[in-house]
Design goal:
By secondary structure, the chain is α+β, with helices and mostly antiparallel strands. It has one domain: tt1808, chain A (Alpha-Beta Complex), CATH 3.90.1570.10. It contains 5 helices and 13 strands. The strands form 4 sheets. The protein has a 6-stranded mixed sheet with strand order 4-7-8-9-10-11, sandwiched between helices. The protein has a 3-stranded antiparallel sheet with strand order 1-3-2, with no helix packed on it.
């Protein structure tokens, strides 16, 4: 089999009519790329993160996973996990968490694919190539689709935007920690290695 190499822009958007199964298979057969799909069917191809961002993201995921294992209230997910939101979009937050009762209400098949739900909690960690406006729109989409708490971490500007259902966005300048509030009871994210 001949292999072709193509160079893509940092973010490429295509509109392709794919079924959910076809989209899942596309992602499975191209694991070196990250795909998302908007509610209108636009396919977004994103390159892997840079090493520095990846290192910070794993620290964030590690802290969330450690808390989640300790209390067993739900399941934590990393940036390679995809979710099918109620509006039809397929998204992969940098880190997320789903309450156990919501996860266990899914069939085994739904758990194996892109779970058809919006996580209760989502985090997006901006990398240098990310657009703040696009990330903010994504955070609003998560909240509109059922996320109860979301954090948009902007290392470049040393700030965090906190998204909650039915509330205005709260902006924190250079915080040392973030509280999981009543969504993630007792969880405190230490930002020392992340920001």
């Amino acid at each position: 089999m001949n292999t072709a190499t193509i160079t893509l822009p940092s973010t490429l958007k295509l509109t392709i009519d794919l079924t959910d199964e076809q989209f899942f298979q596309l992602c499975q057969h191209n694991r070196d790329l990250r795909f998302e799909r908007t509610a209108s069917g636009e396919l977004i191809i994103m390159p892997p993160t840079g090493s520095e961002t990846g290192n910070r993201n794993i620290d964030l995921s590690y802290q969330l996973q450690a808390w989640s294992r300790q209390n067993n209230l739900g399941l934590a997910f990393d940036s390679s996990s995809g979710f099918k939101l109620p509006n039809g979009a397929n998204r992969s937050p940098d880190a997320s968490w789903v309450r156990r009762d919501r996860w266990e209400a899914l069939t085994a098949e739904e758990q194996q694919g892109f779970a058809p739900l919006c996580p209760d909690f989502v985090v997006e960690l901006l990398s240098p190539s990310d657009s703040v406006k696009i990330a903010q729109a994504k955070m609003r989409e998560y909240i509109d689709n059922g996320a109860r708490l979301g954090w948009l971490i902007d290392r470049k500007n040393q700030r965090v935007e906190i998204y909650r259902q039915g509330q205005n966005v709260e902006i924190l300048e250079n915080p040392a920690t973030l509280s999981g509030e009543d969504v993630l009871p007792g969880f405190v994210l230490d930002l020392k290695q992340i920001m």
